[in-house]
Amino acid sequence: MSVRVRLAEVTLTDFRNYGRASATLDGRHVVLAGPNGAGKTNLIEAISLLSPGRGLRRAQLSDMTRKGAPDGFSVFMRLNRDDDSFAVGTGTAGGTPGDDGARLRRVRINGTTARSVDELLGLARVLWLTPAMDGLFTGPAADRRRFVDRMVLAIDPAHGKRARDYEQAMRQRNRLLESGHGAQTEAMFAAIEAQLAALGTAMIAARQELVTLLSDLIAAGGDDGPFARAAIVLSGELEQTHAHGASAGEIETMLAGDLAAGRHRDRAAGRTLAGPHRADLHVLHAQKGIEAGLCSTGEQKALLTGLVLAHAGLTARVSGMTPILLLDEIAAHLDPERRAALFDRVDHLGGQAFMTGTDRSLFDALGPRAQYFRVTEGTVSEDG
Known about the structure:
The chain is 40% helix and 22% strand. The chain has helices at 40-48, 61-64, 141-155, 159-179, 183-221, 237-243, 248-261, 263-269, 297-319, 336-348, and strands at residues 5-15, 18-24, 29-33, 74-81, 84-91, 106-109, 112-113, 126-129, 230-235, 280-285, 290-291, 324-327, 352-357, 370-376, 379-382. A 6-stranded antiparallel beta sheet has the order 2-1-4-5-6-7, with helices on one face. The chain has a 6-stranded mixed beta sheet with strand order 8-12-13-3-14-15, with helices on both faces. α5 (183-221) crosses α7 (248-261) and α5 (183-221) crosses α9.
């Protein structure tokens, strides 16, 4: 049985348009209603910092600090895991500058500074769906790879470091492509490419495991009602070879060979052209058998919503903890029947969802299952 994870308190200081704001939560779902520009998305962005990375907007940390604030921002959250309580603080306030001069993000758990933001994954899983993701199926492949990697991270906490190490090794190889020649350089290429092949193979395997588990869960769910059912597959020669049963050793050998054979090609291109950073996620409307990118805007939204909800269920099953869901403007374009079905699906997941909208009445079907707040010009107050 999954650990029940709930936020009990959120306090923002000098974050976006908030000077200082606090909300005490009782464990139910949370509805944040208010006009556009009031700060609803800013609030759930702050909550998204309960996970590694730069939050649901992928913003620079400096952009999160309230204009005119002298000492960065801070976000405090009290998190309940069944009967245990944890105090989590994160932000740049009082932090030291990094190599680029910008303040670094710090994380403290129960008063102790975390060695890495990845420690947050031991406390909670935070997932989100925002309007900025509406173009996922028609946008660049890099956005879909990032989407896949965040899904993997929710069930495999080691994936974040794996991906960061891969990116660092690839940057080293790209620099070598620009400047390196001679026998010593060949030895450096071989060492870096061996590292890339090992890390890349692990990334491919982790992504494929995510796709397999999620596909099985979606298929087992049958008819998803108002949310179109997605069929997902990873593209790329290495990804397809792995999906058809090749061993990790075979994939690693293939990738190392591709990198070694492609040095001249990559030097001309100025970048590395083989590896998991070239993969893509293909999504089909399962019932219609057509690419998601060719579906109507409404169908794409339904596919993405169904995919995120299915992943939330998978996350609870694999991680052993119920997820915190951040759903920005989720009800705006749904009719009453679809909204009610959405809320029932969210409630069935067993986690805590934070939902935003301009009109509280959009969430009437939630009834007493939610706690309601009014957000106006950087202030948050309970609303009934």
